[in-house]
Amino acid sequence: MSENFRGAKQGLTSYGDTGFSKFLRGVFLASAGWDATDLERPIVGIANTESDFNPCHRLVPAIIENIKRGVLEAGGVPFVFPTMSLGETLISPTSMYLRNLMAMETEEMIRSQPMDAVVLVGGCDKTVPAQAMAAISADVPALLEVVGPMLTSTWRGERLGACTDCRKMWASHRSGDVSADEIVEIGNALATTGGTCMVMGTASTMASLIETLGLMLPGGATPPSPTGERLRHATKTGRAAVRLAKEARSPSSFLSKGSFLNAVTVLAAIGGSTNAIVHLLAMAGRAGIDLTLEDMEEIFIKTPLLLDLKPSGAGYMEDFDRAGGVPQLLLRLHPLLDLEAIDMFGKSLGEQLSEISTREDQSTIHTLESPLLPAPT
Ligand code: FES
């Protein structure tokens, strides 16, 4: 393994005297308990989007603890830093106009602080595309770790989840089928854990596409936020970030037109959020990849719907997770994918898929031969 990291010596603050810049950096890091041995190791920045204004991210602290553990186990030094956080339901007038600001802010914090790799912890709708855009532009070794979806709950025997059911139940209330008392009960059953909306909305869609692009370790899109599976994925991500730092593998080393076309195919097969079109174009643009609406249309008309999740189907993200998540979906979709596309470690999608076998014990991910809905043509 090559060792290309530069640790705390990189990106020195300008004082007009390089020796003094290094000395002063050491002085202040020593005040935080870091010694010379620590500072000979790769530094992994961890972008923290915990915010009381973003309830979807309320389990971020536990996830970050596990990422830090993974970084330390692999011989790196974890440095957590705050960035903007965009919680869909608490931002006025809408979160979209802040996506680019978050992308720029995150990018500049990655660029201006001495880190050999970065792990970006996001989840709620605009945070993931903003962080991906930042990572692509900064072009340092980067992995995204999402907070994961919420778990479902029930109300009087009916399974509920945010936010397809939020609109459905509110409509029932407005039509008089659900009383004022009942809608309060329902409101307490729609979002009962930390995590992102557990239908195939924008958060789940973007997590699935980021995993497809290879900006997230396999299996990262679907584990629910409150589970040990989520925490174990975070630990693995911390370890992998140190390896990425040592091998200096940045997004430009593996993102390709093929990987973006694969993401578009997945978007169609999961019945994902149409917002993803805007986000994918922005991410491809930052990667210098010429992805067009025509490319997308060509894929949309030939790709059937395979995933049985709300709002297109019946299930929720925890069902997708139990069915094997994105790797299992990619396996079923492989005739429509570019198998030469590589992940962050240079492994081709074909190689990755050859290591897993088809799960027959589930009904959430359909096959190309028997899709939930056939392709439009
Ligand atoms: Fe955060 Fe839905 S409101 S993911």
Structure description:
The chain is of the alpha/beta class and 377 residues long. It is built from 14 helices and 6 strands. The chain has helices spanning 18-31, 60-73, 96-112, 127-138, 164-174, 180-187, 202-213, 228-247, 257-270, 275-287, 293-300, 317-322, 325-333, 349-354, and strands at 43-48, 77-82, 117-122, 142-146, 153-155, 158-160. The protein has a 4-stranded parallel β-sheet, sandwiched between helices. β1 (43-48), α2 and β2 (77-82) form a beta-alpha-beta unit. The radius of gyration is 21 Å and the shape is globular. The N and C termini lie far apart (48 Å). The relative contact order is 0.12. The mean pLDDT is 96. The structure holds FE2/S2 (inorganic) cluster (FES). FE2/S2 (inorganic) cluster is lined by residues 56, 88-89, 124-125, 163, 196-197, 201, 203.
* Cα-based radius of gyration, to the nearest Å: 21 Å
Dominant shape = globular
List the helices and strands in order. Answer: HEHEHEHEEEHHHHHHHHHH
In terms of DSSP E residues, the strand content is 5-15%
Summarize model confidence as the mean pLDDT: 96
What key phrases describe this protein's structure?
377 residues, alpha/beta, four-stranded parallel beta sheet, 14 helices, binds FE2/S2 (inorganic) cluster
